[in-house]
Amino acid sequence: MGVCVRIPATTANLGPGFDTLGMALSLYNTLEAAWSSGSLEFEVTGDGAELVPRDATNVVYQAMHSVFEKVGQASLLEERGVRIHIHNNVPVTRGLGSSATAIVGGLWAANVLLGQPLSEDELVHMAVEIEGHPDNVTPAIFGGIVVSGMVNGKVYSKRFSPPPEMSCVVAIPDFQLATKTSRKALPPAVSHADAVHNVSRSSLMVAALVEGNFDMLCNLMDDRLHEPYRMPLVPGMKDAIARAKEAGALAAVLSGSGPTLIAFCKERADRIGTALQEGFQAEGIGSEIMILSPA
Ligand code: HSE
Question: With contact defined as beta carbons under 8 Å apart, do 15 and 201 qualify?
Answer without folding.
Answer: yes
